[in-house]
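Postdoc handover notes: sequence design on the structure in folder B. Input tokens:
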């Protein structure tokens, strides 16, 4: 018996054509280029989005967009999607908007139409009030398109600026990111890089060599290790793409959808009233001896979980996200184990940026203080430690989110003021019994206050010094002088820190504080 197939209807042919174009678009630049991408240890744009977003949640936009360039023979080569995959999906059930550059199509180079696709999804994210995540993997501007490509970058940058402080913006550098392309990630809230496969720089090694004579590799010039440890451009560094994507998903979990909402509460079985007896023994008897602030942070946050931001950069200060009582908080803490926890240029701007982000997105701030002062020296002064220190002071003073500060040990001079003191509108300021709040430490103070007496009677200088030091320590090497004046709201037992901080945050949930009307501030940049 002969089977007779009915000819396809016109509608069926159109559907078949749609299926074919979709399949072709999903291949990007084709199988060979996909294999080349994999050979470099890199995933494709669609593979990355498949891992980033909840299974089955991705809705793609503009799959069939093609470039419109006719110069340099470009009219003979077209790929559906034109080198970027855009759309929306969910992470742990929460909507996010995404774009992922496809290096298999023209090296991911930015054309006018690619820029239009990215701008479109950025506009959609802003209207919807949802986070935007960009996965960057691009050779830069598409040279054949000239000024159109440059205009495309500028359109993207303008949207980064308008979205700043309204929706969270996150950039993941999954490959090359050079020239003007670096400014979009720099304008976003967080930047993540992947070791060995991603790099960022304004001018490449060849240009550097021709201009300055320096011989440098891509990794040495702008690799993940450089930007996570030296420049501070990268907020996170991942060993591979899977780790990078896991970090993105974890980060989103601490953030709200937009500036008008709060981060989702996370259920925990960690009791709010949990007592940590070990904290009573953390502070060494010797005030010049270091201890590790990570131990304190891990002891007071929910389940000991802490997502650190810029972990390798300016390690004398620690910033990052945690949950306390199920609620997202931003942690800022001096690190006595690195440079004694002193504030310097990099630490100041690192913390200032983090404080401003938390304030923009309604994330309460918990500040743990043990700071001997600002780093001195010509290098710091020539590098504008004054202006950079003022950034942190400004950030705390401007912030209207709940602010809870705990002084563990040293809090001296200008650094005391900068680290969320009561006069910078700190809501609740606690201190441990070991706190020392003063203009400076005892030894330095005595050398200033009694310089004449010590010089006048060298024979008794040592005796006088010891006597005056004891007197000074009784006055200031404790938290009670500050508490007597109301600058400290309470002196608490260290083991109760978790409970006291969480309860303070609970009472502050309804806090409402406004800034004076202004066009915008003039942060000391």
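Designed sequence:
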């Amino acid at each position: 018996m002969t089977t007779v197939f009915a000819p396809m209807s016109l509608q069926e042919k159109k559907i078949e054509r749609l299926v074919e174009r979709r399949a072709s678009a999903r291949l990007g630049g084709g199988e060979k280029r996909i294999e080349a991408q994999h050979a470099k240890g890199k995933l494709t744009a669609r593979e990355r989005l498949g891992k980033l977003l909840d299974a089955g949640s991705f809705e793609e936009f503009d799959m069939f967009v093609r470039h419109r360039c006719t110069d340099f023979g470009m009219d003979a080569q077209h790929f559906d999607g034109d080198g970027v995959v855009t759309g929306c999906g969910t992470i742990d059930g929460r909507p996010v908007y995404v774009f992922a550059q496809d290096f298999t199509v023209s090296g991911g180079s930015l054309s006018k139409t690619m820029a239009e696709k990215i701008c479109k999804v950025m506009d959609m994210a802003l209207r919807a009030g949802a986070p935007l995540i960009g996965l960057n993997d691009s050779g830069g501007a598409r040279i054949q398109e000239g000024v159109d490509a440059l205009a495309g970058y500028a359109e993207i940058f303008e949207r980064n600026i308008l979205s700043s402080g309204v929706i969270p913006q996150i950039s993941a550098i999954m490959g090359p990111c050079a020239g003007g392309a670096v400014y979009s990630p720099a304008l976003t809230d967080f930047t993540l890089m992947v070791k060995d496969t991603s790099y960022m720089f304004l001018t490449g090694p060849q240009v550097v060599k021709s201009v300055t004579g320096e011989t440098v590799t891509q990794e040495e010039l702008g690799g993940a290790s450089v930007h996570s440890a030296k420049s501070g451009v990268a907020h996170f560094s991942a060993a591979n793409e899977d780790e990078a994507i896991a970090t993105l998903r974890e980060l989103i979990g601490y953030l709200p959808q937009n500036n008008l909402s709060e981060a989702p509460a996370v259920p925990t079985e960690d009791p709010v009233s949990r007592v940590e007896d070990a904290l009573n023994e953390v502070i060494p008897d010797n005030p010049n001896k270091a201890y590790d602030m990570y131990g304190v942070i891990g002891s007071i946050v929910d389940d000991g979980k802490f997502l650190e931001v810029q972990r390798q950069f300016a390690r004398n200060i620690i910033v990052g996200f945690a949950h306390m009582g199920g609620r997202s908080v931003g942690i800022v803490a001096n690190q006595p184990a690195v440079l004694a926890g002193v504030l310097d240029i990099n630490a100041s701007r690192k913390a200032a940026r983090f404080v401003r982000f938390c304030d923009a997105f309604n994330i309460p701030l918990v500040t743990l203080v043990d700071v001997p002062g600002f780093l001195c020296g010509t290098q710091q002064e020539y590098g504008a430690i004054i202006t950079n220190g003022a950034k942190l002071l400004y950030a705390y003073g401007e912030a209207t989110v709940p602010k809870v500060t705990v002084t563990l040990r040293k809090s001296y001079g200008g650094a005391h003021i900068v680290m969320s003191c009561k006069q910078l509108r700190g809501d609740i300021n606690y201190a441990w019994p070991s706190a020392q709040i003063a203009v400076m430490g005892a030894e330095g103070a005595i050398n200033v206050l009694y310089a004449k007496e010590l010089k006048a009677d060298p024979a008794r200088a040592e005796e006088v010094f010891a006597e005056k030091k004891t007197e000074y320590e009784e006055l200031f090497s404790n938290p009670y002088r500050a508490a007597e004046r109301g600058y400290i709201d309470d002196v608490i037992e260290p083991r109760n820190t978790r409970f006291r901080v969480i309860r303070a945050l609970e009472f502050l949930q309804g806090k409402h504080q406004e800034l004076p009307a202004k066009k915008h501030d003039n942060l000391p940049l």
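Context for whoever picks this up: The radius of gyration is 28 Å. Don't rerun without checking with the PI first.
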